[in-house]
Design a protein that fits this description.
mainly alpha, SKP1-like, Potassium Channel Kv1.1, Chain A
Length: 193
């Protein structure tokens, strides 16, 4: 590794981690702290527990240590395989990794973890998604019917052309955003119970 300078990171539960500067700089948040403030006494990370910070450091270290040869397809495939294994964690850890990646501004980790959740949702019915994430259905049957009626395009599989789909989505965008916001709020409440 090019950098041998160590940076001390302090988790919300008091754990400290001494990491190579190159690893710490994978986080744009930490990078800005180092640039703007003296980091000699360590960098407190009040929104990240030690357990999650250890996982984040593991991810950043692996990505720093991998050779950056753009022409090496084997290296790229190896890193993708490692990433796939890295996100095979329980849902709570996955959601905390998303929050940590967002807070620490590590775009590649945020993208990886969010894509993992998207893959868990892909192709599932609302009922299956609720079961997967243990989400209570807080809609009354009448409210659910209203959302389905207002967002009929989302429940139809055979829209004849893309232009029609775009127009329907534009007309019902506010309803879609409302329904998504309701589901997202329930999901995040579940993640922190």
């Amino acid at each position: 590794m090019a950098s041998t300078k160590k940076i001390t990171l302090k988790s919300s539960d008091g754990e400290t981690f001494d990491v190579d500067q190159a690893v710490a700089l994978q986080s744009q948040t930490i990078k800005h702290v180092i640039e703007d403030v003296c980091a000699d006494n360590g960098i407190p990370l009040p929104n990240v527990t030690g357990k999650i910070l250890a996982k984040v450091i593991e991810y950043c270290k692996k990505h720093v240590e991998m050779p950056k040869d753009a022409d090496d397809r084997a290296t790229e495939d190896e890193l993708k395989a490692w990433d796939t294994e890295f996100v095979k964690v329980d849902q709570a850890v996955l959601f905390y990794l998303i929050l940590a990646a967002n807070y620490l501004n590590i775009k590649s980790l945020l993208s990886l973890t969010c894509q993992t959740v998207a893959d868990m949702i892909k192709g599932k019915t609302p009922e299956e998604i609720r079961r997967t994430f243990n989400i209570k259905d807080e809609f009354t049957p009448e409210e659910e019917e209203e959302v389905r009626r207002e967002n009929q395009w989302a429940f139809e599989r055979n829209i004849k052309n893309a232009e029609e789909e775009v127009e329907v989505r534009r007309e019902n965008q506010w309803a879609s955003e409302w329904a998504f916001a309701e589901e997202e709020e329930v999901l995040w409440q579940w993640a922190f119970e």
